[in-house]
Amino acid sequence: MAGRINDDDVKAVRDAVPIDAVVSEYLQLRNAGGGNLKGLCPFHDEKSPSFQVSPSKGLYHCFGCQAGGDTLDFVMKIDHLSFSEAVERLAGLAGITLRYEEGGYTAGTSGRGDRIRLVEAHKAAAQFYVDQLGSPEAEIGRKFLAERGFDQAAAAHFSVGYSPAGWDHLTRFLRGKGFSDKELITSGLAQDSRSGKPIDRFRGRLMWPIRDISGEVVGFGARKLRDDDNGPKYLNTPETAIYRKSQVLYGIDLAKKEIAKTSRAVVVEGYTDVMACHMAGVTTAIATCGTAFGGDHIKILRRLLMDNATAEVIFTFDGDAAGQKAALRAFEDDQKFAAETSITIAPGGMDPCDLRLAQGDAAVSGLVEARTPLFEFALRHIVSRHNLENPAGRAAALAEAAPVVASIKDLSIQHESAVQLAGMLGILDEQFVVKRVAQLARWARERGQGDGPQGGRPGGDRQRGRPSHEVAPAPAVQPAGGPALNLRSPAHRTERELLKLALQRPALVSPAFDAYGIDEFTAPPYAAVRQAIQDAGGASQATDDYLARVREAAPNDTVRAMVTELAVEAIHAKTVDEIYAGVQLVQVRLRAVDRRVLEIQGTMTRLSPQAPPEQHAAVQQELWVLQQYGQRLRNRGAEGL
Length: 641
Prior knowledge:
The protein has 26 helices and 16 strands. Helix 20 packs across helix 24, helix 20 packs across helix 25 and helix 22 packs across helix 24. The longest helix is centred in the C-terminal third of the chain and has 29 residues. The two termini are 57 Å apart. GO terms for molecular function: nucleotidyltransferase activity. It catalyses: ssDNA + n NTP = ssDNA/pppN(pN)n-1 hybrid + (n-1) diphosphate.
């Protein structure tokens, strides 16, 4: 078994892979000022970005949920990896060969993390399937692709492959690569047979590798090609440690950059539809993998779309009953998006793949542009279920549709939609419908079941029971070992600024900072950070690994999180220079001097007249020295330190 990874190699991995490059594989990052980047936190739901990345420091921190750390911490948390697995993954990206201090380095040993092994097995399987697509047996698969307008280049672009029809072709291949039978079963690439020996799960099928947002192959979609195949038309990888069908989107690895760039995502229903859209120039197309579009898929897209005002999600569905049902399910999740949601249905019930074959690439791009707001589609569907030829039918349709319109939080859009609903129903008195919708919206707010009006699109602040014009209070920072920080306290604000300077710009506060006592920081969490800096050698000893040493010196995860937060948070000054640093140094020291003066004055008051004269003299001398020092600081500023 491979042992502990060499410390120098761990440091090399940390230094070699920029944190912003890793994080941007999972979410869109934008400039946050001060050299930092920001995005929607991948670890909790939020409406506006509070997740910040500092490329220069190699750290991230979320000011909403307090998650934070370095590149390895991020990979460990987002992909649920152990420390060694995270190091191994990043080492693979950087092309670094790791050394193990107990037993040396052995490629592919059982000491590699389980998740890494499963990913490696899928990567090897994907290449195996790609290679098999060129075999004589795979002619049926190549014909299938050609009939749908996909040439060899298209197949290669999407890494489409073929699984041989025999029982254990892949199993034997992966065994030869050093994978155990247990790993093949656990990965879902093989399954137990009646004889007790593993056999290939996918046989005689066209294979699409399913990648997560970081580009790792985590599963496969397999399409039936032969009539004698008694299995389902599409067979997907079963749920495994690395594959959850509700948490993956086919094509997201290819589409994510364009989705982030254009603030648009196109959701289609199948693998060939994704291929057709991309071949037609709609490179933001993605699809679910054998399941309905749901909440976890929304989270993936929101991190890429950043919930900006111009973001849009377009659903394409077949025109049949199943397609309409899927569209209505998508509408149920519409309020979870801040993005606009639309729907487009191809003529004649064709999917994008069929449409491209019949009418060419331009028809596919035109289909996407000819979209209808999903809200309007759902409203028309509701209205269509009622007989509008008589008053009773119109009343019933209004009763069902009005609450849907009332749920819109933007008052202007709500009003326009109410007028639109009146037209759909054939009710000439538009104001009657408008007033009815407004009344329902008001009742919902009063019951605490709806959000108040918002100046933006439907969506706003979706926290139930809170009017949308109110901003939910940020959670108090309450690290263990101290009370919640009161940032309205001038002392706490200044101590925080000084610590940020000591972590981010240590040269500006050195060497004076290292002479400050732990007790000069009145907030216990800040005192703990000051202690960690001291234990790491002090600000004057800052080198390339300074922040890493401070984080390692922290006594627990709470203090370590505070170090990360202070290292990432912007310094509150337009110009961060020696003058600003000097002001913070003086303020913290001056408050400490003033506190000590008050303590000594109290001591003098309590001294008995019978106390020895030398005791009185010593106390008075200390008081005089401190008062003179305090006056010097007030008069001369940092020069008086």
